[in-house]
Amino acid sequence: MNSLHGQRVLLGISGGIAAYKTPDLVRRLRERGAEVQVVMTPGAKAFVTPLSLQAVSGQEVRSELLDTAAEAAMGHIELARWATKILIAPASADVIARLAVGMANDLLTTLCLATDAPIAIAPAMNRLMWANVATQANMATLRQRGYAVFGPGEGDQACGEVGAGRMLDPLELVDLLVGGSGPQVLAGKNVLITAGPTREPIDPVRYITNRSSGKMGFAVAAAAAAAGAKVTLVAGPVNLPTPAAVTRIDVETAAEMHAATTKAAGDQHIFIASAAVADYRPDSFADSKIKKNDSEMNISLTRNADILADTAKANPALFTVGFAAETNDLEAYARGKLERKGLNMVAGNWVGGGKAFDADDNELLVVWGSGKQVLPNAAKTALAKQLVELIAGRYEATK
Ligand code: PMT
User: Fold this and answer.
1) Which domains occur in the chain, in start order?
2) Best mutation site among 257, 323, 366, 383 for ligand 1 pocket (most ligand atoms within 8 Å of CB)
3) What does the pLDDT read at residue 1?
4) pTM value surpassing 0.90
């Protein structure tokens, strides 16, 4: 599973400066064993020549929808059926918009409509075009439809600006397409994950939240997908790209996270609750901005429902993993949550003093039944892989 042997990858290239990286991308895909068919939009040809791509792919490059000679060799519907994976890199703002509205006005968008194959896109554009609400709305639509989104990365841009919008490097894209390099310990399993904070509105401009960045939960989602699981990620408001091959449901409040989790839980084998859910919400929401005056302001709070405990109770066959964020007595509190919420495992982490919340690294004390294991301090991406292997092992042990 670490290779692309037997995979037929349709590489869609749209018009953007990052297209100059695609001959290398084709080479990397073929090195991993994939058969590659390149499809270019007319705009892509301004940045890289079909001849170069034909030379590295070993296949005639396709770009016209109404090309009688090419259609006679392999019609566009056949081409759409031929692909086992579609990767669009670079995906320009224009192609993203056309995919979002379901247009079929060139060969690439037509193939995307006519295929059953999973589609991954690697956005690449100027940072303001990427941040534009229109692009973000189109991305949300594509994510909801199950498109995997690889990147974009951040850094210096060809236009001289600095920010998010760079296409990921060919090697990163190939790794993401392969689905990671670890053992497939969760193959065939459905895994539901909550991540990030929740926001509890006070009025149209204010809310209660916490310091969770979502990095831990997103890393767990990426690791679970790389381990072969079908992952559904219920994400609070965070500023992170969706990990490859993960279905993401964006929510804002604890109540929305509760509803999305409850809806998805029935089909799952494993539930991992890494979200930092607000324990309380304001009793009421003021429709208009609350005006300050000279007296004190008091906000009365109501307890939010416990998503993890409720989900564990309603789905007794589900293997449930909670997190515990503690400033002291970590093991005792983690074990308390294990018992009280009726869980299979709890991953405890020390918080406060810059630890865990919004950090790139973390350390976990994982407890279950009579067992425990320390996962020493490491990057959250590396730690998530270890946690996923531990969860998979405990899951198998309980079956
Ligand atoms: O997002 P990062 O910046 O990467 O930070 C990661 C993290 C510190 C947020 C993460 O590692 C973590 O510890 N998440 C759980 C934080 C938390 O809220 O812990 P808790 O001890 O309050 O809650 C215990 C468990 O119950 C958690 O699994 C939580 O998701 C769940 N819970 C809590 C309250 C609630 N209403 N519903 C829940 O599901």
Assistant:
1) 8-179 (3.40.50.1950), 190-286+299-398 (3.40.50.10300)
2) 323
3) 45
4) no
